[in-house]
C-alpha cells in the first residue's frame, strides 16, 4: 500500500492516458500510452512490492474466483461494477476501512471517482458501491 500511496498525485500529461508515470504503469503490463490504466496501475504497484501477480490491464481479470474475499483489508483489490458495461469496469486498492467506508488508491480516476479520469487519487467509497474484493497478497 505504501507504494500506491506514494503515487497519489500522479497526473496524465494531456488527459489522454499518457505521461511518464502513466506510461510506466501501462508498459509494465505490455500496453502503450492511451489505454485505460486502473488495473495496470495496481499491477505495477504489486510488481514494485515484489509480487509477480497480478499483471494485467483488464480490471475484470483481477477478480478470479480463487482470489475472491468477502472483507476489505489493507492491500485488498476492489472492483466497481458498471451496468452499462455488464462487468467490472474500474478497480482500486484498499488503504484502510472505517465503518462502512473504504479508503483506497485508484489510477485513471478523478475527483468525482469516474473510471476515465486523469490521474492517481485517494478515493473514499461506501462498501455498498463496491462489487467485489480480491486478495493477491495473502
Structural notes for this entry:
There is one protein chain. The protein has 138 residues and is of the alpha+beta class. It has one domain (2-134): endopeptidase fold (from Nostoc punctiforme), CATH 3.90.1720. It has three helices and six strands; from the N terminus they run αααββββββ. It has helices spanning 2-7, 20-28, 38-48, and strands at residues 68-69, 77-82, 87-98, 101-109, 119-126, 132-134. A six-stranded antiparallel sheet has the order 1-6-2-3-4-5. A hairpin with a 4-residue loop joins strand 2 (77-82) and strand 3 (87-98). Helix 2 packs across helix 3 (38-48). The longest helix is centred in the first third of the chain and has 11 residues, at 38-48. The protein is globular. The mean pLDDT is 97. It comes from Pedobacter frigoris. This is Peptidoglycan-binding protein.
List keywords for this structure.
alpha+beta, endopeptidase fold (from Nostoc punctiforme), globular
What is the oligomeric state here? Answer: single chain
Indicate the percent of residues in helices: 10-25%
User: pLDDT under 50 segments (min length 5)?
Assistant: none
CATH topology: endopeptidase fold (from Nostoc punctiforme)
Mean pLDDT: 97
Q: What amount of the residues lies in strands?
A: 25-35%
Number of helices, where a helix is a run of at least 4 consecutive DSSP H or I residues: 3
How many domains? The number is 1
Major β-sheet annotation: 6 strands, antiparallel
CATH architecture: Alpha-Beta Complex
The computed structural class is: alpha+beta
Number of strands: 6
Gyration radius, rounded: 13 Å
Protein name: Peptidoglycan-binding protein
Amino acid at each position: 500500500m505504501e507504494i500506491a500511496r506514494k503515487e497519489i498525485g500522479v497526473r496524465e500529461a494531456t488527459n489522454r492516458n499518457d505521461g511518464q508515470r502513466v506510461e510506466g504503469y501501462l508498459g509494465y503490463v505490455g500496453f502503450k500510452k492511451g489505454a485505460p490504466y486502473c488495473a495496470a496501475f495496481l499491477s505495477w504497484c504489486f510488481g514494485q512490492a515484489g509480487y509477480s501477480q497480478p499483471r494485467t490491464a483488464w480490471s475484470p481479470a483481477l477478480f478470479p474466483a480463487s482470489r475472491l474475499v468477502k472483507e476489505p483489508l489493507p492491500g485488498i483489490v476492489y472492483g466497481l461494477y458498471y451496468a452499462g458495461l455488464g462487468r467490472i469496469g474500474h478497480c482500486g486498492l484498499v488503504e484502510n476501512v472505517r465503518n462502512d467506508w473504504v479508503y483506497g488508491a485508484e489510477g485513471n480516476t478523478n475527483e468525482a471517482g469516474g473510471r476515465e479520469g486523469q490521474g492517481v487519487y485517494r478515493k473514499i467509497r461506501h462498501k455498498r458501491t463496491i462489487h467485489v474484493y480480491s486478495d493477491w497478497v495473502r
